[in-house]
Specification:
The protein is mainly beta. The chain contains 2 helices and 12 strands, in the order αβββββαβββββββ.
């Protein structure tokens, strides 16, 4: 009887979810100024509210990214971008994981991006590596600012491209 109880407890504990806590990482939001240059603001201000069971495919929860802390190589341009995306009113972009599916050598993460107060589906193609005690995620996705109610800013007579290409590189500690 004691053996059965002990085995049941061990089996149940292995099915429990681990929290995934960000240990380091970055999110880059690449776009371009038509006829001029590229814009590559990056933030390392990332917070996770994720859990994972026995497999990468079981990851659920959300990740918050501080859009206020997106910084590029041009402080003046950053100020214009912060104004355009109204980061005082909408300081965070939140991505909520709905499903993680293995497709070939990569994973497809389907979820909802809440940006600028608008929620829309967004898929991320990612490489996810699970190691003892950690999970590393490198992914890419694209969206249009205008889909989230953001008018692409103009810099003098030049217009910023509407499409944002996201690059995500985050390592999580299992807890």
């Amino acid at each position: 009887m004691k053996k059965t109880l002990l085995l049941s407890l061990l089996a149940a504990s292995s099915l429990m979810a681990s929290s995934l806590i960000v240990t380091n990482g970055s999110v880059k939001a690449h776009t371009e100024v038509f006829g001029d240059s590229t814009i590559d603001p990056v933030t390392k201000s990332i917070t996770s509210h994720l859990s994972m069971g026995n497999s990468v495919e079981s990851i659920k929860g959300s990740v918050d990214v501080s859009v206020r802390k997106l910084k590029s190589d041009n402080e003046t341009r950053d100020e214009h971008m912060v104004e355009a995306i109204a980061s005082d009113k909408y300081p965070l972009a939140t991505y909520t994981f709905k499903s993680v599916t293995k497709t070939g050598n990569q994973y497809k993460i389907d979820g909802i991006l809440n940006f600028h107060g608008v929620q829309k589906p967004l898929s991320i193609k990612a490489d996810i590596a699970e190691k003892p005690g950690s999970v590393a995620l490198k992914g890419k996705a694209s969206f249009k600012m205008s889909d989230y109610g953001v008018k692409p800013p103009k810099l003098l007579l030049l217009t910023v491209r509407d499409r944002i290409d996201l690059s995500v590189n985050v390592t999580f500690k299992k807890k």
